[in-house]
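Researcher: Next sequence.
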Amino acid sequence: MTAAQADRAEPRAELHIDRPTVADGAALWRMARDSKTLDLNSSYSYLLWCRDFAATSAVARDGRGEPVGFVTGYVRPDRPRTLLVWQVAVDEAYRGRGLAAQLLDGLVARSSASHRITAVETTITPGNTASERLFTSFAERHGAEVEREVLFATEAFPDGPHDPEVLYRIGPLSL
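Model: Next structure:
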């Protein structure tokens, strides 16, 4: 941890989780970029996400109100009790504290209150062990099974060679 990161890092108790706003879009884009593991979408898409999918997304804020982590998701139109988690990222200075799990648990609980969520889906690129652990431990905490299948094979991507995306379907949930 650098001195700047240590200055920014605060005790867990000072973090607050709530819905993202459009003003958070730039910070979410930077966290996704800096993660070096997420597929980086356009900055415009993060602004739209914070506007149109705030109810099914969450942001963690430090004591100054600055975003330090996020999870984005949406309720699948053809499966209205399934929350698809799009991206999860935590600022480097806040990693290793269980913040991603807190964000995921909080988002699913909040989404369940309005949508009666019974399953969570996400896609994970093979080799992304941090995401694999996050979603496997989520399933264990909630007494759910994990099903895995290739969602999009390499040849499905029109922009050239791409790792396959593995769909993780977690459910039924005990919330």
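Model: The radius of gyration is 16 Å. The CA atoms of residues 113 and 145 lie 21 Å apart.
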